[in-house]
Structures are given as C-alpha cells and as structure tokens.
Amino acid sequence: MKKFLLPILAALFSASAAHLGAATPRADLVSRVESCEAVLQEFQRDPRLAVPASVLAKAKAIVIVNQFKAGFIFGVKEGYGVVLVKKSSGKWSLPVLIGAGEASLGLQLGATSIETIYILTDDATPRLLFNERFRIGVDAKAVIGPKAAEAVNPDYKVIDSPVLVYTRSAGVFAGATIKAGYIARNDEANFTLYHTQHTLPELLYSDWVTPNAEVQPLMNLMQKIAP
C-alpha cells in the first residue's frame, strides 16, 4: 500500500505547487468577483438567508466567500472571496480579492461547496488582513448572525460581535460562537485584476485606483443595500 500511496502523494503535491505558481487569468478573477456578487444577490433575495437591514447598518466591511472541497485524500477546503470596506465618506470600497481556507461551517454530507457572508462590525477587524491572513473566530470573535426570521422580532437585539456570519447551512442558532477557517490576502490576484501594484490596504482605503466596469455592479449593490 505504501508503495502506491507515495507516488500519489507526490503527484498531489506537484500539482498543488504548479497551481500555486501559475498566474490566474484576469477573466477568471473577474468571474470570481461576479460570483461573489451573485452570492450576495441570492442571499438577499431569500428571506431565510438575507442579512437584515439592522445588521447591514452596522457593517464596516463585508466579506463574501466561495469555498469548495479539494483533494480526494486530504479533503482540504479552499476557495476565494472579496472584501469591501465602508469608508468614512459612506461609500463602499473596491472589492478586493482574497483567499479562504479550512472552513467546514455549513458543509452538509455530500456537499461540495459553501457560500458565506461575513459582516465585520468594527474598523479594526478588516485591518487584520494587513497581516496576510486572520482566522475567523480566533483572531476575531465570530458568531452566527441574526437572519431575517429573527430580525422581524422587535425585541431581538442585534448581536454585538466584530464578525457576524451568514451561511446556507441549517441547524445553527443566532449567537452561536464559531470558528470558520481563515481569510488571506491575495495581492497577486489584485495586481492582475486592477492593473496596479497597489496592495490590499491601498485598494481598500485609498481612492488611488479607479473602479473598472467589471467590479462596479458589486459596489453599486453594496451601496444600495447598505448606504
């Protein structure tokens, strides 16, 4: 068994190294932004999933993540997402591409993907991405956020936490503390997407890069639902 397993492992590691070393085509990066926009639209159209207006009003940043199972031996979860911050002017930033990994929250038996929205409710938490990556629920406390069903109750108090988590999973309760893997900077992807050498901090907090047509719809959507 060992004789057959070692070549398989070597092939997997080689494939992973080749994947990491290859530049992702810009068209694929645009598709990532568009898929994150679609995730947000789908959530907001479904009363069972929608982030309530009372939560969006507290948002200092939003992270939209698409993750999937990868690796038939290791079962590692990896994926991508975008982060946008709300500037002091009230305008939403460019969507900045990030990586995401090791999350199992919401994965049901047989599922191959998970879509999650993180609402960040303070100014400090999105800046944790300046340090390459941060672990949700470890570096910043994260809880399951109230959905529309809870929000219709006038006595329901919006949870006070730096990270509120919304996912397609069932059987989780508002206020439950969770650990949900990590999100990480992906400056190389953003260099390609925006034709710039500005990194995540500048893209999020400055006005040095003009939004291109492909990312404007997501920015407009955020401005509409969380003005």
Determine the strand fraction and express it as a percent band: 15-25%
How big is the Rg?
A: 18 Å
Number of strands: 9
> What is the terminal separation in angstroms?
59 Å
Estimate the helix proportion, in percent. Answer: 25-40%
**Quaternary structure annotation:** single chain
**Order of the strands making up the biggest sheet:** 5-9-3-2-1-4-7-6-8
List keywords for this structure.
about 30% helix, single chain, about 230 residues
Describe the structure.
The protein has 227 residues and is an alpha+beta fold. It is built from seven helices and nine strands, in the order αααββββββαβββααα. The chain has one domain (23-214). It has helices at residues 2-21, 26-45, 53-56, 148-151, 187-194, 200-205, 216-225, and strands at 61-70, 76-85, 96-101, 113-120, 133-135, 142-144, 163-167, 177-178, 182-185. Strand 1 and strand 2 (76-85) form a beta hairpin. Residues 1-21, 71-76 and 106-110 have low confidence and may be disordered.
How would you sum up this structure in a few lines?
With 227 residues, the protein is α+β, with helices and mostly antiparallel strands. 32% of the residues lie in helices and 22% in strands.
Task: Describe the secondary-structure layout.
Layout: H1 2-21, H2 26-45, H3 53-56, E1 61-70, E2 76-85, E3 96-101, E4 113-120, E5 133-135, E6 142-144, H4 148-151, E7 163-167, E8 177-178, E9 182-185, H5 187-194, H6 200-205, H7 216-225
Parallel strand pairs: 6-7
Antiparallel strand pairs: 1-2, 1-4, 2-3, 3-9, 4-7, 5-9, 6-8
